[in-house]
Structures are given as structure tokens and as C-alpha cells.
């Protein structure tokens, strides 16, 4: 998800710049001013409550703003991202936005402030008054809107300056130049944004080979915990020896061992576009750990795939694999295969169900040939991350 707030005094050109951005980055546009005008036009209760304040150029109460924004976000939670125009307009609204983003498992990537002088702002609004048909585009109301802006809205900048995601653009330049500057800011942001994917699926569903192929295709770091543990054993490290003895006694490797390995991998990988996790998270506890771990790096899970293959086909595939070099320890007998599949049902399926409530989970049919499934997933990734390639 890419979430941007456009900031600036009335007449700065937020609406104009939005038109380009929503198209190019496939964002859902939320202008609180437009939403309020819609409520007004349909004479809803909220609209009626806001009517007089808007007419005077004052700021509508935060309670009303929360209601209209929440409604819009909720009905469009599958959007590629949001572009906010005219929100947050108060310091309180900046906190509200933080809360709304948490609900979406996301965050505001940047507040882009289009800076124009007061005289220019008034000049543009008076110009706009001739064609906009907006009753609040008249001299008295404009003055009040600018007063509100200075007193209540400008402090919002400090919120984002402190947070470190405030970026200013010179709004006195020609429209195309402002667009160019904003476009550059957003592409820079995108190039730094981590694209984290989790691959779910029963053993044998192809999640490993698909994950590896996707990692290569999109320059992502492939994080397969099983392979990482094996690597430690091979290296003969202290942790490796511990893992070996746990394996031998048939015990699960505890999170205390797995998590630092993942963290080390994240710390050591440079210039990656994101991570693709396979075999982790495997339990509900691990799903919370992963959220926390990514949060530490100011990131989050962006996309989840669940590869579905029916049980008989899975058994057939795993049995076939047991006769190859790629054999996993649990492939060696039907009994072991069934036990491993059962473990997935018991522990990992609840994790997927949990994610379905909060994340964008795409269920993919893993039965077709490898190349076909890879193509389907690639399309999904590119759809969700337009311009992220
Ligand atoms: P705009 O179209 O953004 O210029 O907004 C027009 C009017 O709607 C403003 O002058 C305010 O009265 C009201 N409004 C829009 N957004 C907000 C907001 N986030 N908080 C409070 N009032 C708002």
C-alpha cells in the first residue's frame, strides 16, 4: 500500500495534483472537502451538521471527519493505497490518521506539502471562484479559511516533521513542474518501500519453488526458515548443533532460535526490494512476531498468497519428491507425509484465517503447471504493486 497526504493552504493545487497521482499510482482519492460537499448535497445528517461551518470557512469537527473518512476507507480497504486531500487538517486529525492506518496494517508514507504564499493562495481562490460554483470561494470566507489554516492546520506539519515523513514542494512553480517534483518524491519512496510477501500452502503445494522464483524475479530476499536451520546445521555452528540435537529428539525448534536467525538475515540483506517468507509464520504466535519484527523496520506484510492444491495431489507430489534429491525428511513415508499435512491443518491454517481478516490474502490454485501458477501470482503482485516493479 502507498498512502500519501497532500498538504497545503486552500488553492495550493492539491486537487489538481491529485488527478495525476491517482491515475499514475492507482490510488484511492479521499478529499474530505468533496466528501463533505457530497453529504451536503444529499442533505444527510452529517451534511446538515457541517453546513454552516463550511459556509463560514471554519473547520468541521473531528467527529464528523472521522465518520466520513472511516466509512470511505472501510469500503475501499482493498485499494492500492490512499491519497488524502484536505486531511489531516488538525493536529488531532494527524493522530486519527495514524489510528486508521494501523487498522489497515499500513502507514502514511509521506505528507507532501505544496507550499505557496498567502497572496498567491488568495489570488488563485478568487480566480477559481469564477468557475468553481463553490459558495465558500468568496473573499470573506477565503480570509477565514486561511485564518483557520494558519491557526489549526499549519501545526500538523510539526507532527510529520517530528515523525520524519514530511516533504515540501515549491507550489509556486508551473503545474507540470510541481507534478514532476511530486512524482519524483513518490517514485523515490516506492523504491525504498519493502515489498514483503508471505507464501502459505501445504507442503508440496509449490510455495517454496514459487517463492524462490518470485524472489528472483522481483529482487526479493527469500526467507525460508527450514533451509536456514539446515544451513546452520551444515555450518556446524553452535546454534546448528543445538538444532541438530532438537531434530534428533524429534522436538520443534523454539522461536528463540528461529527469530534471531530471521532478524540476522533481514539486517544483513542490502538493496533488497523486500522479503518473501516461506515456512514462517507457522503458528499464531509467530504471526505476531513477524508483524512486530517488520514494524521494527517500519515495514509490514504487503501481500499474502495461499497456494491451494488438493490432498491427493499433494500426497502424489510429496511421494514423487521423496525419490529425488529435493526430498525432505518428512517425505519418506506416507505416514510422515500425512502427519506433516495434519500439522499444517492444525497450526498454520488458523494463521491464514487470522490474516484473512486483516490482510489482502490471495488464494491461488496451485494445480496448474508451475509456469502457469507463477504467472498468475506475478500478475497479482503487479496488480497490487503497480509501478513497484
Ligand atoms: P476543501 O475542499 O478541502 O477546501 O474543504 C472545504 C471545507 O470543508 C473546508 O473549508 C472545511 O470547512 C471543510 N473540511 C474539509 N476537510 C476538512 C477536515 N479535514 N477537517 C475539518 N474540516 C474540513
Using DSSP, what is the number of strands? Answer: 10
- Rg over CA atoms: 26 Å
Q: Main β-sheet, in a few words?
A: 5 strands, parallel
Assembly state (oligomeric): single chain
Description:
With 389 residues, this protein is of the alpha/beta class. The chain has helices spanning 14-25, 32-41, 45-56, 62-75, 91-103, 118-132, 139-153, 155-163, 175-192, 207-218, 225-235, 238-248, 255-268, 284-296, 311-321, 334-358, 370-384, and strands at residues 4-7, 28-31, 82-85, 110-115, 166-170, 196-201, 221-224, 275-278, 301-308, 361-365. The chain starts with a strand and ends in a 5-residue tail after the last helix. The relative contact order is 0.11. Bound molecules: adenosine monophosphate (AMP). Adenosine monophosphate binds at residues 10, 32-33, 36, 53-54, 57-60, 65, 86-87, 89, 93, 136, 145.
Fold topology:
Blueprint: E1 4-7, H1 14-25, E2 28-31, H2 32-41, H3 45-56, H4 62-75, E3 82-85, H5 91-103, E4 110-115, H6 118-132, H7 139-153, H8 155-163, E5 166-170, H9 175-192, E6 196-201, H10 207-218, E7 221-224, H11 225-235, H12 238-248, H13 255-268, E8 275-278, H14 284-296, E9 301-308, H15 311-321, H16 334-358, E10 361-365, H17 370-384
Parallel strand pairs: 1-3, 1-4, 2-3, 4-5, 6-8, 6-9, 7-8, 9-10
Bound molecules: adenosine monophosphate.
Adenosine monophosphate (AMP) is lined by residues 10, 32-33, 36, 53-54, 57-60, 65, 86-87, 89, 93, 136, 145.
Amino acid at each position: 500500500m502507498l498512502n500519501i497526504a497532500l498538504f497545503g493552504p486552500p488553492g495550493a493545487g492539491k486537487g489538481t495534483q491529485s488527478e495525476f497521482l491517482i491515475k499514475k499510482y492507482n490510488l484511492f482519492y479521499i478529499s474530505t472537502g468533496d466528501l463533505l460537499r457530497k453529504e451536503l448535497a444529499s442533505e444527510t445528517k452529517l451534511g446538515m451538521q457541517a453546513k454552516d461551518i463550511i459556509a463560514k470557512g471554519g473547520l468541521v469537527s473531528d467527529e464528523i471527519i472521522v465518520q466520513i473518512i472511516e466509512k470511505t476507507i472501510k469500503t475501499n480497504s482493498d485499494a492500492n493505497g490512499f491519497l488524502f486531500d484536505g486531511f489531516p487538517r488538525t493536529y488531532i486529525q494527524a493522530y486519527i490518521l495514524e489510528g486508521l492506518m494501523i487498522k489497515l496494517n499500513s502507514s502514511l508514507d509521506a505528507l507532501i506539502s505544496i507550499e505557496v504564499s498567502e497572496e498567491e493562495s488568495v489570488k488563485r481562490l478568487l480566480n477559481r471562484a469564477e468557475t468553481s460554483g463553490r459558495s465558500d470561494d468568496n473573499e470573506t470566507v477565503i480570509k477565514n479559511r486561511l485564518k483557520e489554516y494558519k491557526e489549526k492546520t499549519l501545526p500538523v506539519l510539526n507532527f510529520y516533521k517530528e515523525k520524519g515523513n514530511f516533504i515540501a514542494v515549491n507550489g509556486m512553480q508551473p503545474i507540470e513542474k510541481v507534478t514532476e517534483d511530486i512524482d519524483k518524491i513518490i517514485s523515490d519512496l516506492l523504491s525504498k518501500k519493502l515489498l514483503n510477501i508471505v507464501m502459505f500452502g501445504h507442503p508440496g503445494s509449490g510455495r517454496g519453488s514459487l517463492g524462490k522464483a518470485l524472489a528472483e524475479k522481483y529482487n526479493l530476499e527469500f526467507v525460508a526458515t527450514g533451509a536456514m536451520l539446515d544451513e546452520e546445521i551444515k555450518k556446524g555452528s553452535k546454534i546448528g548443533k543445538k538444532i541438530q540435537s532438537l531434530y534428533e529428539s524429534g522436538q520443534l525448534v523454539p522461536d528463540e532460535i528461529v527469530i534471531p536467525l530471521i532478524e540476522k538475515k533481514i539486517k544483513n540483506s542490502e538493496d533488497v526490494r523486500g522479503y518473501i517468507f516461506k515456512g514462517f509464520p507457522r503458528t499464531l504466535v509467530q504471526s505476531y512476531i513477524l508483524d512486530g519484527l517488520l514494524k521494527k523496520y517500519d515495514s509490514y506484510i504487503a501481500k499474502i498468497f495461499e497456494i491451494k492444491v488438493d490432498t491427493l495431489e499433494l500426497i502424489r507430489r510429496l511421494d514423487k519428491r521423496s525419490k529425488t534429491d529435493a526430498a525432505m525428511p518428512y517425505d519418506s513415508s506416507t505416514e510422515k507425509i500425512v502427519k506433516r499435512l495434519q500439522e499444517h491443518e492444525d497450526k498454520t491454517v488458523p494463521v491464514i484465517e487470522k490474516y484473512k481478516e486483516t490482510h489482502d490474502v490471495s488464494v491461488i490454485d496451485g494445480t496448474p503447471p508451475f509456469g502457469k501458477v507463477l504467472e498468475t501470482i506475478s500478475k497479482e503482485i503487479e496488480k497490487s504493486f503497480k509501478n513497484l516493479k
